[in-house]
Design brief:
alpha/beta; 12 helices
Length: 319
């Protein structure tokens, strides 16, 4: 019997991206979106489930005796019950290393935009501020150079290192923050609290876990400079969003660029979306990873992971 491959959320890969065809003979089914109540039905008889964000918990997995592989079309796999996969003998693969150009460029883009208040000046022009000033230019927001600023990176993996390399190239001084709560500081790292207090920009690149949930909250924001910028392209839960809004509105920190949210898609109930008009807040819809070249690389690795599994080889295995 041919393996049955089911992609639960194909629309997470844009239509302009070519999704390779697996080398092995197979049956292919793809759905743009899959609601929670549709998961079990659509995966009945499936050998391989492909998912980006669709949740596959123990209650779902227990009803899928044919399932042998979950191929995650992303790096993060917190939408899966990994322990249940182990118990049930379901392999899990993810995709790594595809966004080491896209994410750092997005981070640097946010740093430049917020340091120079590009969006805020655009808004001021639209509101007639230039005409009211009657000058060839006007200065309603401070403009800070990026070169010479200190960037503290939280997370020393591939994305953090790639961001450091790009930031260094534009003249930033880069430091890496040690894990929060660690008493021993690794060589080349700065204690977590000291890194926050020294930084002109803090960029988050660590995974979301019980230990890193609300890694940045009111106490941590209080350690940062009043002019500091916080960038989060990691995971929404790394930051206490209500505390961040309070810090932005009170002037406790200077600005924030956020690409990830506690719940996605975020709506007006999210504190950040509710305050989207703040001139020192820049929001993007979880697209830092999503340059065309990065997504094409992701698609290639995703299908190669499936081919490797069907070959009997381990590649990018989580379980």
């Amino acid at each position: 019997m041919l393996p049955n491959l089911v992609f639960l959320d194909r629309a997470t890969i844009p239509s302009q991206i070519t999704l390779p065809t697996p080398r092995h003979p197979h049956v292919w089914q793809a759905y743009d979106f899959t609601a929670p109540e549709q998961v079990v039905e659509r995966l009945q008889g499936a050998t391989v489930a492909i998912t980006n964000k669709v949740v596959l918990d123990e209650a779902v997995l227990a009803q899928l005796p044919s399932l042998k592989l979950i191929a995650v079309s992303a790096t993060g796999y917190n939408n899966l019950d990994i322990e249940a996969c182990r118990r049930l003998g379901i392999a899990v693969t993810n995709v790594q290393g595809y966004a080491t150009q896209s994410v750092p460029e997005h981070v640097l883009g946010m740093i430049f935009s917020l340091s120079r208040h590009l969006s805020a000046y655009h808004h001021d022009i639209a509101q007639g501020e230039w005409q009211r000033n009657k000058q060839f230019c006007f200065f309603t927001h401070p403009i800070r150079d990026v070169a010479g600023a200190t960037l503290a990176i939280v997370g020393g993996g591939a994305l953090g290192r790639a961001t450091a390399q790009l930031a260094s190239a534009v003249g930033m001084d880069v430091i890496f923050a040690e894990r929060k709560g660690e008493h021993q500081c690794r060589e080349g790292y700065v204690p977590f609290e000291a890194a926050l207090s020294q930084a002109d920009v803090v960029s988050l690149h660590c995974p979301l876990s019980d230990e890193t949930f609300h890694l940045i909250g009111e106490p941590e924001l209080g350690l940062m400079k009043s002019s500091a910028i916080l960038i989060n392209t990691g995971r929404g839960g790394l930051v206490d969003e209500r505390a961040l809004v309070s810090a932005l509105t009170s002037g406790q920190i200077g600005a924030a660029g956020v690409d990830v949210f506690t719940s996605e898609p975020a709506d007006e109930s999210n504190p950040l979306l509710a305050n989207i008009s703040l001139p020192n807040l820049l929001l993007t819809p979880h697209v830092a990873w999503g340059s065309d070249s990065a997504i094409q690389k992701l698609a290639d690795i995703l299908i190669d992971n499936i081919d490797a599994f069907l070959d009997g080889r381990e590649q990018n295995r989580v379980v």
